[in-house]
Amino acid sequence: MPRHTFVLPMPSPASLVALLLLFLATACTSQPHMSRMSLQYLGNYEISFNKQFKGTTIGGLSGIDYDPKNDRYFLISDDRSAINHARFYTAKIYLNQKGIDSVQFTGVYTLKQSNGLRFPNTKENPAKTPDPEAIRFNAATEQLMWTNEGERNLKGKTAVLTDPAITIMDLAGNYVAEFPLPPNLLMQQGDNGPRQNGTLEGLTFSNGAKQMFVSLEEPLYEDGPRADIHENNAWIRIFRYEVATRKNVAQYAYKLDPVAYPPVPEKSFMVNGIPDILAIDSAKLLLMERSFSTGRLQCTVKVFLTDLSHADNILSVTSLLNNPPAHPATKELILNMDDLGIYIDNVEGVTFGPTLPNGHRTLVFVADNNFNAFEKSQLLLFEVIE
After folding, report:
1. What letter does residue 375 receive in the DSSP assignment?
2. What is the pTM of this model?
3. N or C terminus of the chain with fewer C-beta within 10 Å?
């Protein structure tokens, strides 16, 4: 296409001032500013396969949180009471100059239902079998919160539709209470509501545990398609709760990246979703996206700095497919673990760890080995540079 030359009249000084003021106003309001953060890799530690502790098999570690006052970690297993009863562990993680020196498990606790009984496995009662994913410690109440993905299995003679759950428990695993779910988190038999194994995986507190965020792993049916290898507007929702009232007061749209690698063979299983979130303040979150494709054992894990400050509250929007968000959550990539040059497995949980001698915070990630000898229960340590 040929280029054309245009001669513009010289603006007056008053016009230049007006243009400058307009530019500054636009720059201040168009995009929220996100302070730059980076993560420095310090090392990793692998928990031996099928490690035994107090009569249980350690594995399936899908959530982690840190209690700095008592220097202890809480780790939840996504064992659906198939190997041992659904449970969580406490542990000590010892650091040295090279990263993680060793891990000592200190306790194991069975998750309890509201009736005080342990959770059954799928053979005993598939409608009551849990799928534990995230765990957080509330220092203000000395209680724990955990998420259950529920079940949506329409195969077989009898459909199993079990709603996800956000449950408060005490430090021994005893049921205390649940957070009510908004209607769009209830399992449906038709193409509405959450997808199977794509519900509540991320959980975090902010503002002194007065506020809580939970996130979906994959899009609701009515919000659009699952992530693909090409951009396709795969929207997930982040839910904000007020802890005191246990009310869901806001929902925010967040767009997933495409799946990182095409599956082999073509059209076999692939996924990209959010396994965990971690609050920095009342509006900013660290958010993980984890991508897996058949034919490639390693996962691609990306960490984003996400800002909800200017995101629309889509609580009343029933379908993002029909009503795409005008102002979704913003995202800024701060780490792609592919760039580390090491094997990265199925990372599912993240927490702030202890403060380093230089005053910098740490992040500790945990990978779920799915009780598979070909996968690894990894702990990965990073220094947070702000």
Report:
1. S
2. 0.90
3. N
- Token code pair at residue 135: 């765990």
Amino acid at 358: N
What angle is formed at CA 136 by the lines to CA 134 and CA 142, rounded to 5 degrees? 145
The answer to whether residues 105 and 113 touch, using CB atoms and an 8 Å cutoff, is no
CB 289 within 8 A of CB 337: no
φ and ψ at residue 36, rounded to 5 degrees: -70, 130
CB atoms near residue 76 (< 10 Å): 28
For residue 154 the two structure tokens come to: 């329409």
Whole-number Cα distances in Å, 185 to 80, 207, 281? 21, 24, 25
Residue 265: asked if its preceding bond is cis (omega within 30°), the reply is yes
Structural domains of the chain sorted by starting position, each given as residue range(s) with its CATH number in brackets: 48-385 (2.115.10)
Contact 284, 250 (CB under 8 A): no
Beta pairing, strands 284-293 & 296-307: antiparallel
CA-based nearest residue to 63, from 273, 365, 274:
365
Rg from Cα positions in the chain: 22
Q: In this structure, what are the phi and psi dihedrals at residue 343, rounded to the nearest 5 degrees?
A: -70, 130
d(CA 83, CA 81): 6
What does the pLDDT look like over 320-359, one tens digit per residue?
999 999 999 999 999 999 999 999 999 999 999 999 999 9
Arithmetic mean of pLDDT, 20-29? 39
